[in-house]
Amino acid sequence: MQLKYDNDFKNIIDDLNIITDIENIPFKILDYLNSINNELVINDINTNKLYCPICFKKLNKNICLHCNKLFKYYKIEKYKMNLNVSNIKECRHRINYYIFDTKEDYLVLYIINNTIGFDNPNSFMLKKFNKYSIEKIYQVKKDGLFDINLNKYIYFNEYKKIIDYFQSDSETEYDFDDDIFNTFETFREKSFLYLENLEDLKKYDFYKYSYIWTLKDYFKTGLVNLKLLTYLPIYIKEFEYLVKMKLYNLAIDADSITYKGNFNDTFGIDKKYYKFMQKIDISLLELYSLRLYPTTNKKILDFVCDYNGPLSFLKDYADILKIKEYMDNQKLDYNYLYEYADYISASKELNMDLKDKNILFPKNLIESHNKLIKELEISKDPEIDERIKKLSIKLEKNKYIDDKYIIFPANSIDSLIDESSQMANCVKTYCKPYSENKCQIYFMRYKDNVNKSLVTIEVKNKKIVQAKMKYNEEITEEIRKIISEWEKRIII
Q1: Domain boundary residue among 326, 347, 380?
Q2: Which of 26, 86, 194, 211 is the right S-S partner for 99, CB 3.0 to 4.6 Å?
Q3: Is 282 helix (H, G, I), strand (E, B) or coil?
Q4: Would residue 362 count as lying in a domain?
């Protein structure tokens, strides 16, 4: 195919050399594609055991003794194919590769799709197959991308308008172009960038000062998309600023940083933290957390990052380190910071004196939290508990029991609060809608340990809308099958 476009990129002229057939991809790039898919170890989703992608033998740590091959990146999720090994013949895995074609007068970017599958023609030996196809072809220009497949121009400034709309708190509806948004935002499951010619981008004026080639280490293990490869380095001036400051992880989110003339105003943190920010190659979430609690202690910063949500609220009432110490003294998992935030919020709503240390740091957080939440719910509507009890009697018709498990309805405010505390979830906030039968809440537990929470289930219109284990983790396949069967028997 030979196409060429005029300076405004509106009309096709002639003679733009692009490859449309995978068979015409240069051998060195095909070798690169094959080398990547041979690095993707097979991770059995049922056992978490790793297998060689070439001979399908179990790995000894990161080594295949059969192929005598070392897998360097076996611990990195991106370098794993998460498959059901017991049914591997039915599995298909997709990988995407981004390849720059750096011509003298123009720049083309290919997205190549690789589908990996497995078959067993000899009944005793698996065989891996690869299917490559060119998914997208773009010409890259200083003001946007031209989608050669669709013969459509995608302008950077149009995407910027969409981002500005999302970052504003405007309540005005904006009918934005989904295609533009998805073009730049899509992160594919596994995406790799061909790095051998990345420095060739220097010869294009719109990449000349971006220093995108200094991000090679990130591109080796991080996700890649069009936003990162084109929009940020070409269109967002902060990208160059952050790369030159050697804040590479922030450069990946350059459109969330606004240069304001000096360090302090730009980053919202004192410049004395700059060396620390460089040392840890600070990410955007870490920057937000550093603003929340300025520190050069990486462990403390990690703690603030992990629980940024509740700590953003709690910091107004107590020092973050004192909060951490309090949770340690209570011997509670830090996930219970959400319960602590609930407790503080309820205390404030009930006009309790949070300057009193005995109220701010109660001796037994869970017990105090449960008591306070119940008081708050009843203060809002004293009939809630009675309605829940009456409803639970009717819902007993939906009760399930077998040799191992039992499923039964919540029967009081106390039961919902207790479930919420045990599971570290928000089911306690369902008291009112549950009492009005706008939803139904059930507990699934082991039959021989009926007081210990296992799964919280929400039902609407006789259909399960949520079923979560502790910390909102996904349920097991065994539990999924049981509650799916139980769902068919719900009669109320």
Answers
A1: 380
A2: 194
A3: coil
A4: yes
- Give residue 213's identity as a one-letter amino acid code: W
What is the value of pTM for the model shown?
0.74
Tokens of 262: 């000096």
Amino acid in position 180:
I
Q: Is 418 within 8 Å of 428 (Cβ atoms)?
A: no
Q: How many domains does one find in the chain?
A: 2
pLDDT band at residue 156 under the 50/70/90 scheme: very high
SS3 content of the chain, % helix, strand, coil (to 5): 45, 20, 35
The pLDDT value recorded for residue 220 is 78
Give the integer Cα–Cα distance in Å for 461 and 459.
7
Find residue 113's DSSP bridge partners. 96, 133
Q: Looking at residue 343, what DSSP letter applies?
A: H
Would you place residue 121 in the very low, low, confident or very high pLDDT band (cuts 50, 70, 90)?
low
Query: Closest Cα partner for 127 from 142, 135, 117, 141?
Result: 117
Q: Say yes or no: 357 and 415 in one domain.
A: no
- Given a contact cutoff of 8 angstroms between Cβ atoms, the answer to whether 359 and 353 are in contact is yes
Give the integer Cα–Cα distance in Å for 439 and 212. 51
Contacts of 311 (CB under 8 A, 6+ apart): 292, 293, 304, 320, 323, 337
Please enumerate in sequence order all residues whose Cβ is within 8 A of that of 130, keeping only pairs 6 or more positions apart, or say none. 34, 37, 114, 115, 116
Most confident of 78-87, 144-153, 312-321, 375-384: 312-321
CA 310 to chain centre: 19
* pLDDT band of 15, cuts 50, 70, 90: low
Could you say which DSSP state residue 238 is in?
Answer: H
Give the Cα separation of 202 and 209 in Å (integer).
Answer: 8
Give the domain range for residue 447: 384-487
User: Using one digit for the tens of pLDDT, what is the confidence trace for 387-409?
Assistant: 999 999 999 999 999 999 999 99
By the 8 A CB rule, do 386 and 411 touch? no
Half-sphere CA count of 383, side-chain side, radius 13 A? 4
Q: Rounded distance, CA 329 to CA 210, Å?
A: 49
Confidence at residue 378, expressed as pLDDT on a 0 to 100 scale: 84
Question: What is the spatial distance between Cα 82 and Cα 48, in angstroms, rounded to a whole number?
Answer: 9
Q: Quote the CA–CA distance of 89 and 80 in Å, as a whole number.
A: 17
- State whether the Cα torsion 351-355-359-365 is positive or negative: positive
pLDDT digits (tens, 9 = 90+) for 256-267: 999 999 999 999
- Mapped onto helix, strand or coil, the DSSP state of residue 98 is strand
Give pLDDT tens digits for 169-200: 666 776 777 788 888 877 666 889 999 999 99
Establish if 156 belongs to a structural domain: no
Q: Is residue 403 part of a domain?
A: yes
Q: Which of 362, 380, 398 is the last residue of a domain?
A: 380
